[in-house]
Amino acid sequence: MVYLDDLDRKILKLLKEDARITISEIGERLGKPESTIHFRIKKLIERGIIERYTIVLGESARPKEIAFVILELEKPVIEDFLSKYLEYVSRNLAMLPHILLVGKTKDERIIALIGAEDKEELTRFIEENIKSIPSVKDVLVYPVEDFKKGEEIKGLLIGI
């Protein structure tokens, strides 16, 4: 775990809310000199706490339908190949449009967060791109009806 003091946390919170905020605005809001804020941001970058600045797409550009999808793959004859195949499938899924997130579970499944404009597009994408993967044993689809936290993840991608 990386140590962050209160000032670092406050700076990160402001940058997370608006990455376009200026150093002088941060300084004003936090009651600190620009030089202190500049130094802290520089150190956060050097320490790998801030990797890059990015955008979050607005509501009109975000997918309207979201689903978690869990894939279980057939175990190959040579079980040593399973982890390599999981890695291969995960990498390929991550390159597809509509895929917001891909991860591998400890019990050798793949989990993906998928977004689309409507239910039909989401269903078609899953049928054509997920269920058609060779060696897929089972696909579980869990549509997300409502986010309680983290809804901004919908604005981080979607096939642009």
3D architecture notes:
This protein is an alpha+beta fold and 160 residues long. The chain has a four-stranded antiparallel sheet with strand order 2-3-1-4. A hairpin with a 4-residue loop joins strand 2 and strand 3.
What is the topological layout?
Layout: H1 6-17, H2 23-30, H3 34-46, E1 65-73, H4 80-94, E2 99-104, E3 109-116, H5 119-130, E4 136-144
Antiparallel strand pairs: 1-3, 1-4, 2-3
Structure characteristics:
160 residues; alpha+beta; four-stranded antiparallel beta sheet; 5 helices; 38% helix; 20% strand
Structural class: alpha+beta
Helical fraction: 25-40%
Shape: elongated
Roughly what is the average pLDDT, rounded to an integer? 88
Radius of gyration: 20 Å
Largest sheet composition: 4 strands, antiparallel
Distance between the termini: 34 Å
> How large is the share of residues in beta strands?
15-25%
Q: How many strands appear in the DSSP assignment?
A: 4
Low-confidence stretches: none
**What strand order characterises the main sheet?**
2-3-1-4
Our count of helices gives 5
SSE string, helices as H and strands as E: HHHEHEEHE
